[in-house]
Structures are given as structure tokens and as C-alpha cells.
């Protein structure tokens, strides 16, 4: 490897900083000192940025880093960002793992300041006594803010008290800032701060712990570099020392631009500073004395050249202190000089605890000049960090070139000849633009769908980036409106709508539709929008700081709108990223991988697409062919051999040797070993689960690893097939040397799992906020306030399905960056300890109300009975009942056989009752299917499967056969009635053995058929053994009916029923009842319309009645008529079916139950009197309702009919009879 090439040993996982939901961001106003009123909750503008400047202001941080608390955790890491022109300090937890007892801290706190804050005057401290985080900020108004945050502020919304911190936020206006300008802030502890000033002095703040509330919060002490005399001479205009103009202030060259505070394990604190004059000064914080002053490179320079060694005031991280492991007053100080090519210097410091300090150069003869990532570009070392490891200290350096950055690592050697013992190792930063395949007429998906998949790939772009790019794109078209209709659309719909409006489908010159022109124009517009997105997204990746976590061994790159977690490379990663310079033991494997990738890269887009389509069929089509036949079939389908050239084949031979001699079974074993994790930690129990941030790191790493492994293994499969059929000599072919089919099968199996993982890692869904977030929300808002619009957040199916399995192993000594890599490698391995149960994933997706995503998993589904059943549940959730029925029947035999041990895992889709119905016979299985169809109200399929259950219930031999039969008959009857299959309902009714249930369902069936107008079918049904009950039901309905003109014609139905059963007298009796009710409601006085005035409801009823009795023998041609008195006619009718006596008894029973009175105990006198009076009323009512009855013969009815006709004629001729009352009226 050349001197300018660094070996890649690490990779980064870049994560978006977009909040999980809008409600997870808490806006808090930090009031200035003059503010007295209580701060109110703030709602920032929700309008998207419409230009690049507004986008940078709203989304990109100007300063950001991670602070690690020293004494407390949960949260231990705090990510802070300065946003919106310095007016917002955003804080959030950045822990990768948490203890089992602690909840995840999901809230983001946005502290809004009245004036922009100074980015380099932000500090944090962790209290040793209390679990609280202290935040110190100095703004441009020279006000010092001290804010105390408890862990609940990051976990419970109620802790913010409606957007205010109350007494936890305090403001102080230091008098010392009246004539001096702050430059840097260094935090010694929660009660002590140090501010470096523009003149080189320092201002120490000690918290005033007195109980005088009116006194100052802080006690200020000023220390100067050269004492008061030199300071006063500096006020004279002609005696001022050299200065540098920065941020509208003239900084003296003794001003400190980079600081570090440490105690070195002693009670005293020391302030280490690097000043603009290229010197390091060490201050005793307690006395304010300068204990050491020296050049940061320990160099002796000519005083005349001091101006060449001045440091830019914008430099912030030029010094770092690493305390010794035993805390015995010993440590190491690292200084960096940005002058020229840049150089590090390492110092050993030791204090005796009495205020003195000894500083020595660790290696005076060595020059620690870091090597830039590339000699072709101009790189600037922007930040560094030194980490103590077992083998010695390691130096991590971050280089920048505009918005691009690189991270390198080197192990330090102070005793050897080389300053960097193993050279520089690089971190692979994936800044490559995702490839965009051109669209063609043979594409399997639409061009819009292809672009949407690319743009909305999980973690690629933030929502604000998409909204800003769309607004800028619309401005370019001249169609942008702030209050456009897209406000009601989601961002995906808005993008499709805007870009779709730019293209129209016109006719070609030949007269047909010009689809090619439409596709080309659409592709052009999408490409423009894509480039605009990339330009905006590039700014999000500008690195701001490099942070190391000494406890977990993590390295972070904090960018303007994202963070990147550095993790260890796996062996396959190292080979892939260092293919030109492989390690000796991996030379053959590297050659095999390089040959496969190079060979596939020569394919055109069409051949590549055709090969992938052929392989997809190979992945998911069931085949009984041998491995060799499958290879031949794939070779014929892919057809890549048609376009490969002799040069392509020669290049493979050049890499792998003549007749591919280096290709052996051992070589493929080595390749498969590279994609398998050998760490025992993956099989251990979890000690601490990952947080939401930790899960996102794993998801991002899985996305990258699965994609890389897929590329390598797919190219190997293509290469294997090519090599198998390229050699013509039978003695030299591959299958003569080893089992090619077995290798092919292992490659297919590995690719199948990778395809499953890729789908899970790139498929997002929205779920309700986690329990921690919902419980904290409940403490501050009404539980019904947002019921209709519950907050949701997006996550990948991989995180949702397997995230609970991720965390720190029980016993491991590895760093966190190695644990993550081993975990990801195990997830992607064919023999992974994490089994991907497709049926379980589909159950979870159905529970999340995403059966559409569960349907996409069908291609990965196994062929066992339960997997087939779950596929049926997927189609059932999609309302495809016919396909669901097919899968349910297919799984019936397998799920009906009794199994001794059944693992009941279904993500809550099946409860215990449903599990009990499986593996217990076909009758119970089909009964379960009936239940789930019944919940969907798919009644036709309820009928179908209920019949199947009844078909096997007699042969089941189970004790529950009787209850199953009763339930299935009940479901069969209800479903048949619901879909008006009354014949099936009648059959089920006759099969019921429970008389009470049969009677209830009989009433339901009769009522349903009568109300639906199915009178003819009702009469045609035999009702074997139930005819009398049907008659009773209809008769009861007739007696209860009051309005016999409108509504269900129960009298006519019962008349037809009795006529069909040759009960003519019964038919006549029910007609007489209807006749009486018609006369009571005055239907006899309504004369007929038209020419026949004698045709009324009453006269027609008389004719039917006479005809019915005429069919009876003359001796039996009579019926009984109840004589209704005038008083009864005037009495209001009581609702039919009311049983007053029964209601009184029920009322008494309820009174007994409410008072828990024993059965033989008397009620109180007042209640007993009420019941007696009501019972007496009931007796009188029943006595009054008892009417006199008389015989009516056929002759009587004919006579009454004639009288009715005469009455109508008299009314028609205005002939009215008079009563005695009428005569008295005339006399008067």
C-alpha cells in the first residue's frame, strides 16, 4: 500500500437527526433577566423553508457536539446543536444503550434565547451530588444563563411545565463583561466557570451559595496574563499590544482560543489554554497564577518571526488533556499547531498537589505530522481526539475539504522511530451518489415509482430537505404558492403532483401517443429535482466536531444535520474496501471477489436487469430440480453469455488463473466464513438493550452490510455459473473438481436471507409513539384531546420486528463499535442466531394494520401449515376473502393434527382461545376460521366453513363436539340469515338440539323473513315439528300490532300460513282480528276512490273472512268474537307485549339485589306499599281487559257485511241517523 493510501479499518453509520414526530420536540423560552412574566409555550413556524438560506437557518447547525456526563447516566450522552442563527440550543439524549430499568429518553429540548448565543461559550457540567445536568450559555448580549435539567426533562413532557423551566433557569449579567469581551467558556464544575477574555485574561465565576436571594448569583474574579500594570498600559492607545480582528473584536495575541480543564486526580483544577501567539499556558484555577508558558510545539523561534506563527481565532480544538488511569496527578496533554502542514505535540504533565506542575515533552526528537487523506485535494485538520487503549494511546483526526470530511486513526509510539506505529487507518465514508438507472420501455416498474423508491429510501433525506427542494423547484417553474393545496397532502403526494404536472402525453407525428417523449421529459424533470436534493443534502453532511466516548469506545462525527457513528469493519468489509492491497492471507479471496464484481460491472443495464429477474425467479419459485439443472435453467434465463466479450472472459482468467485454477472448495469456504460472525457474544443474553438511537445505528449498518454482501454474493453466483459453462474440456470443468451445485445452493440460500433483510431494512411503517412517550404525554394533556389524531413516528420493519433483540451482551470486553459490527454480521449471516420467521413478521404487521406490507413478505414465506395459514390471514386482512379461503383450506390438514408442544408466538394476533382451536381436529380448526370470518362480517364464507366444521364434528370424538356443533349451527344460522339464505338457516334451525336456542332463532328467522318480504318462502318452508311455534309467533305479532295498514303485514302472513296448512277457521279468526282493528282506526269511514265507493279496507276484509269460512263445513263455519265495550275502545292502548305483572316482580327482585336483602326478609314499608299498589292496579287492568266473547256464524258475517254496505250507501247519500243526544240538541 502506498504512503498516501490509508488502509480502511472502520466504517461509519450516518443517521438523520430528524425528530421521530413533531410532538417530541419541546420548545422552551429562556427569558432574559429583564423578563418578569412567566414564559409561555412556543410554537415555531411550521412553514417549510422556501430557499437555501432559510433551509440553512432552520435545519443546519452552526455548532454541535456531544457531552458525556461524568457521574450519572440515563441519559449520559447529550447531543447539543446551535440552530436558527444562534437563537436555539437544541438538546437531546444520544445514548446507544440503556439499563433495563431505565426508560428511553425521547424528548428533544429546544431552548430559545432572546439573543443569539456565542457558539464557543456553551458549556456543561454534571453534578456529583444530584442527578442533574447544568447548562451554561453566554449570548451576544453578554448575559450568562445557568440552566439545570433533570433526566425527566428528556423523558416526560410534564417536567417542562408548559414550555417553561421556572426557577431552574437563571440569568446573570456579569459586570466584568462591561469592559472586557468573552471569547471562550470553560466549565470547571457546576459551581465554577472560567471565561477567557479578549485581552488574554480570564474571568472566574464562583457560584454564590449564600441564602441572600437579592445578592448576585456569581462572584467574579479577574486574572490577567501580565498583571494589572500591563493591563492598564494596554488601555493606552499607543501602547496596545498586537491584536487580531475577529467577530468585530480586536483580540490580543495572548487571548486563549482553545481550552481544557482538568484536575489530574487532585483537589485543584487546572486550565490549559492554547493562545493566539502559539503558546500553551497552564493556569491554577484556585490562585489564578500561570504555572507554565511554552510553545505548543516546544520550538525555539526568532522573535522577529512571531507574526508567522499566529493562530486563527476561529480554531477551537487545539488542546486535549488525557488523565492518567490511576488519577495520581499524572496526565498527557496533546497540542496541535495548525500552522503550515500541521503538527501534534504530546506532553507529559505531573502535579505535586501543592500548586506546581511539571511539563515535559514526551518525544522531543519525533515530529508528529499527520498525513492528509489525499495529496490531490487540499485538506484541513478540523478536529482530533486522543483515546487511551490497551496497546497505547490512539489519535483520531478529522479532515475537511469544504463540506467533505475524512476520519483517520493512528496508534502513537513515543519510543520508536516512527511517530505513528502502524501508519494511518481510514474510516470509510460513503459519499457516493446512489446510482440512478435509466428508464426504458421494458422496465418492470413505472419511472415515477422508481424515483420515489430512490428518494424515500429510509434515512436518505429529511422531510425538511424534501420540502425545501420542492419549494425551490416550484419557484423555478413559477408555480410556487405558500398556501397551496399541497398543505393537505403528504410530501410524497406533493412531489408526485408537482413533477407530474410538468409533463404531458402528446401525440407523435404518426398520430399515435408519443410515450417515448413522455418518458424522456418525465425523466429529465425527475433528474433535475434529484440534483437539487443532492445539493441541499450535501450541506447536511458538513462535519462540525469529532467526539470520542472513552467508556464505550465509540467515535462520533457530528455534522450540521446528522451524526455518524464509527464502527469496526468486518473482515469482508476490509477486503472489499482494500481490494487493490489485500492482506496476504486474503489474497485469493480478494481475487475471487474482485473477479466477480468486475465481471458483473461489465453488464449493460438491460442484461443486469434480466439477470436479476431470472435470479428472483430462482429465489422464490419452488423447484424439484437438481442443483445442476437449476444452474442450467438460470444460465438460459439470464442470457448474460450473449453479450460478454472475449476481453471480459480474459480478464476473469487473468485474475483467477488458467481454467480458474485458484477456485477451490476451500476458497468458497473461506468466502462463506467471511459472512459469518464468529463472536460468541451474539449467543449471550442481553445485559443492556439498545436505545432508539442505538437501534437506528444497527438498522443503518444492516442496510449497508446487506447491500454489500448482496453485491458480492450475487456477482459470485454469476461468476460461478459463467465458469461452470465456460470451460469446454470435461477434465477441467469445475464440477469435476468439486460440487458446484452445493456452492450454488449455499449462495442462493445466503442471497435469500439477504433479500429478506434488505426488504426489512428499507421498508418503513408508521406506528403510534412508544409507551414511554405516550405515558409522558398523558401527564400533560387530556387523554381525549388528541384521540382523533394520535402522533405516530416512522421506523423500519427491521427495527420493529427485531429491535428488542439488540443490546450489549452479558459478558464482553469488546468496544461498542466492535459489538455493533458483530451484531450486524450475525444478522446478515446465513447461519444467524436471529431466525427470520416470516409468519411471525406477518403477524406483527397485521397487528400494526399494515397487511399490504405483510403481503410483500409472502415471497419469503415458508411452506409449512402455519405459514400458509398466516398467508390466509394476510389476505383476510386485505378483504380478499376468496384467496384467504384457499390458504385456509390448504393449511387445514396440517393445523388439525395434534401436536405435543406448540410454540404460541403470533405477536398477539391469536389469543389463547384461538390457539386451543388449532391442532385439535378439523372441526375445531374450521370453527376457528368461522370465527375470524365472522369478525370480518364475511357471512358467505362463514356459511361455507361452518358447514365444513359440522361435516367433521361427528368424527372428532372430542368432549367439546356438542358445544362446537351448537356454536357452528348458531353461526351458520346467523350468517345465513344475514345474507338472506333462509333455506340454509332453516336447515340449521332444524338441526339444533337446544330447544331454548331453537325457539329464539325461530323467532329471529320468522321476523327476518317477514320484515324482508320473504313471505312466500316462509310459507314454503316445512318447519318440521315447529309449525305450531311459527303459528304462535305470527299470532303474537298480530295481537301486538296496532297499525294494520302500514308496516309488516303480519295478519296477511298468518292468514296465508294458516290457509296453506288448511286451517281455515284460524285464518278467518285472524282476519276478524284485523277487521276489528281496521274499524277501530276508522278505515271503514274512508270511502273507496273511483267508481266503486263500496270498496274499502273493511269491506274487502269482510269478503276474505266470508270466503275463508265458506271453505269450512257448515256445522263448523263459526268463529269467536270478543265484545269490546265503549270504555275499552276509549282507553289508550297498552303497548303490545307489555307484561306489567312480570315487570313488577322484576322491579322487586332488583330492589332486593341492590339492598342485598335475603329472600325471606321483608322490604321496607314504603317500597312494599308501592309494589302492592302496582299489583292491585295490574289486577284491575287484567279484569278490565277480560272481554265477553260470542259465536259468529257465516250468516252473521254476511249480515254484518251487508250492514256495512248499507252504512256506506247511507253516508254516500247524506243519510245520517240521530241519537238521543242529537234530538235534544235540536229541541234546545
How would you explain this protein's 3D organization?
The protein has 1228 residues and is an alpha+beta fold. It has 38 helices and 37 strands. Strand 23 (343-351) and strand 24 (357-361) form a beta hairpin. The N and C termini lie far apart (137 Å). 36% of the residues are buried.
How would you concisely characterize the structure shown here?
The protein has 1228 residues and is of the alpha+beta class. Helices cover 40% and strands 19% of the residues. An 8-stranded mixed β-sheet has the order 25-26-27-28-1-31-30-29. Strands 2-6-5-4-3 form a 5-stranded mixed β-sheet, covered by helices on one side.
List the helices and strands and how they pair.
Layout: E1 7-16, E2 25-29, H1 52-59, E3 63-68, E4 77-83, E5 88-93, E6 108-112, E7 117-126, E8 133-139, E9 144-149, E10 169-172, E11 182-189, E12 192-197, E13 202-207, E14 218-223, H2 227-233, E15 243-246, E16 249-252, E17 256-262, E18 270-275, E19 279-284, E20 290-295, E21 319-323, E22 330-337, E23 343-351, E24 357-361, E25 380-389, E26 392-401, E27 404-412, E28 420-428, H3 447-455, H4 463-477, H5 491-500, H6 515-540, E29 543-549, E30 554-559, E31 562-568, H7 571-577, H8 587-601, H9 605-620, H10 627-638, H11 646-656, H12 665-674, E32 686-689, H13 692-726, H14 740-762, E33 764-768, H15 771-778, E34 792-796, H16 797-802, E35 807-809, H17 816-828, H18 838-847, H19 851-856, H20 865-877, H21 881-890, H22 892-896, H23 912-917, H24 922-935, H25 939-953, H26 961-978, H27 982-991, H28 995-1011, H29 1015-1020, H30 1027-1040, H31 1050-1060, H32 1064-1080, H33 1097-1110, E36 1118-1123, H34 1126-1130, H35 1140-1155, H36 1165-1185, E37 1188-1193, H37 1194-1212, H38 1220-1227
Parallel strand pairs: 1-28, 2-6
Antiparallel strand pairs: 1-31, 3-4, 4-5, 5-6, 7-8, 8-9, 9-10, 11-12, 12-13, 13-14, 15-16, 17-18, 18-19, 19-20, 21-22, 22-23, 23-24, 25-26, 26-27, 27-28, 29-30, 30-31, 32-35, 33-34, 36-37
Helix pairs in contact: 3-6, 4-5, 4-6, 8-11, 8-13, 9-10, 13-14, 13-17, 18-20, 20-21, 24-25, 24-26, 25-26, 26-27, 27-28, 28-30, 30-31, 31-32, 32-33, 33-37, 35-36
